Amino acid sequence: MAHPTRLLVSRIAGFSVLLALLLYTNLSWHSEQVGKLSQSGRIQEVVDRVIDEAASNLVTSPDLYRRKSPRIDLGRIATLQSSLSCSVHEGTWENSEVRVISGSQTPLHFKPSQTCFHPAEPRTKNPSVSICPLVGGKRILFVGPETTYYLHSLWLSSLENHENRSHVCLGEEYCSFHHICRPPATNAEDELDLFVGRKKKIPNRRSMLSTNSSVLQYALSTTLHSSQNRDDGAYTRPTVDSDTGVRMHNTYWLRRARKADVVVMNRGPLPAPAWTYDNRNPQGNWSFLASLWNENRVAHLDTGSLDNTLNNRLVNAALWATLDLFIPSLVRSLRVILEDKEIQEGLLVWHGSWYLQPVCTHMRIPKGVVPSLQGFWYASDGVVMSPWDFYYNAQGMVVLRSASHSLLSSRAVYMHDRLLPQLLPHFNITFLPLTVPRCTKCEHSHIQSEFNPFRSRYKDCIRHPWSSYGKDGVEVAFFNALMKLIS
What we know:
Elements: H1 4-59, H2 74-89, E1 92-101, E2 104-111, H3 127-130, E3 139-144, H4 146-163, E4 178-180, E5 194-196, E6 199-201, H5 205-211, E7 214-220, H6 233-236, E8 239-240, E9 247-248, H7 254-259, E10 262-265, H8 288-294, H9 310-339, H10 341-344, E11 347-351, H11 358-364, H12 387-396, E12 400-401, E13 408-409, H13 415-423, E14 430-432, H14 444-450, H15 468-486
């Protein structure tokens, strides 16, 4: 039998070893987390520097314009953009009486800050309706991808409730026009509709002015392709992007833009290449990231000083997609817009893109895919996403996460939202941000239920990205800002 003293010493020694192991494990975990945060902050600083340097080189390049530099009041546009950005970022979610927003009811709604404008202006209760007097007699064109169509649909839905009439759209590829901002309908027969046979006729300028109404049109264009030839193959035939293998949808929109008083446009982040979806590997085939990482000629990050992780390779690829593919193609379209005198006579607005919310994408994730990537732009850990969502969001904007809520806020913007406000004013286009702050008062369970795949009929987190709370925020932010620009 062991001596009691030796037994006690043995137990103390064993406990000391266990305690040491626990302390080592805890310190190792803590060091790993600190290392991740340090690496995350470093990546963000590096990417910020790359984006700002690219923007500076672009706007000062003698090749930015095909002809002589235009006369544009850059200072005025920059001041407007600064006020609009402040108004959205400093906005708040506040309690109020229940009000209808695009067909849904919510006791909370978003209020943009009015102190960002000088002099400060009173808040507008429902800007998607209050904007109507400002656009009386005008033609408004929305041109862009599915996100732009979403905004057009939000407006129609809000006006349906106000006007007591249907504003049904035939779809993204078949939208003709909508006669909007009319007095509320009083009977089944709408006396303001004009027909040629069975076809509804678009009202002329005199008719719109007499009723203080407007015409809204939408043109589908995922790339803002701007060939002057309406028979161009990109308009008339199915076209696949050689860089991504993804189908592009473009309709001829320049003629409608020339007739419009207000043009709202957008081109969203590039999707991941089609070949990244691999039936044999649910996590995807991301082999193209290696060539972008290993070739100094195409790598935008200093790959020699950064860890060769999937996150970092995706960030590098997102920079490549933005700077090497998106921007050169976009500048070609912007030159056409700038050189068209009729288009330049109207108000030109670019609406910001929005991110894919993990609360939505997690509900739609394909079987076998394990979301494991945390965006380097998040303020706190806990939110993970698939590589495809990471790639898209890294191009679109930086978002900050509330530790207590799933809706993400966007107080610091990224890639597109960081670069485009510096580029677009040189083509007489004002950037309108849609980086709505988080709704800390909203109920987490309510949002989860709205994205529940067994309750929701929507499966697309780009075209149907928001719950009712988020829908309220983006609608109010967009139309409040558009009102400021038009007025």
